[in-house]
Amino acid sequence: MTASRALGRAVLAAGGTMVFLGGATMLVTGASMAVAKAVMDRRKVQFQVPCTVCEAKKRVVCEVCEGERILKYWPTPEPPPAQTHSWSVCAMCEGAGDHACINCEGSGTVRPLPWERAPADAPQG
User: Fold this and answer.
1) pLDDT at residue 113, as a whole number
2) What is the pLDDT of residue 92?
3) For residues 12 and 85, what is the distance between their CA atoms, to the nearest angstrom?
4) pTM for this one?
5) Rounded Cα distance, 44 and 125, in Å
6) Mean pLDDT by 10 residues, the chain (125 residues)
7) Domain-by-domain residue ranges, the chain?
């Protein structure tokens, strides 16, 4: 009976150690990932330029409804008489008339591609 108790205590101690080590590993990994993300975000900001699609306004006019906020829909090639129009809210902008810029994802700035950036050691002017 004492052997089974000793074995149970050993398993319990080993399990506790594994839980402690696993938790500590997760804590250290999480902290190091947060530091790495902060460093990368700071580095990305150094190369940011204004978005040319939205002109740094963060939003663009909806291409589907062209800013009208509604869509005039009819299933035939010719439009029907005025009293039978079917109107619906634009699904792209959800009736706002504009939406977040897809190029900069609504941030107003983009990171240019490496071949679009001027080299740091190139003479300015």
Assistant:
1) 78
2) 85
3) 74
4) 0.49
5) 24
6) 72 79 87 89 80 92 88 68 71 89 90 73 53
7) 1-47, 51-78+85-111
CB 92 within 8 A of CB 60: no
Amino acid at the residue 107? S
Contacts of 76 (CB under 8 A, 6+ apart): none
Residue 64 contacts residue 91 (beta carbons within 8 Å): yes
CA dist 21 to 2, 18, 33, 37, 38, Å?
Answer: 28, 5, 18, 24, 26
Among residues 94, 95, 97, 112, the alpha carbon closest in space to that of 53 is found at 112
Query: DSSP letter at 55?
Result: T
Instruction: Please tell me the distance from the alpha carbon of residue 7 to that of residue 42, in angstroms, as a whole number.
Output: 52
SS3 of residue 83 by DSSP: helix
- Given CA atoms 100, 102, 105, 109 in this order, what sign does their dihedral have? negative
Domain 51-78+85-111: which CATH number of 1.20.1270, 3.90.320, 2.10.230, 2.60.120: 2.10.230
The DSSP code sequence of 36-76 is HHHHHHHHHHHT-EE-TTTTTSSEEE-TTTTT-SEEEE-SS
d(C-alpha 96, C-alpha 69), whole Å: 6
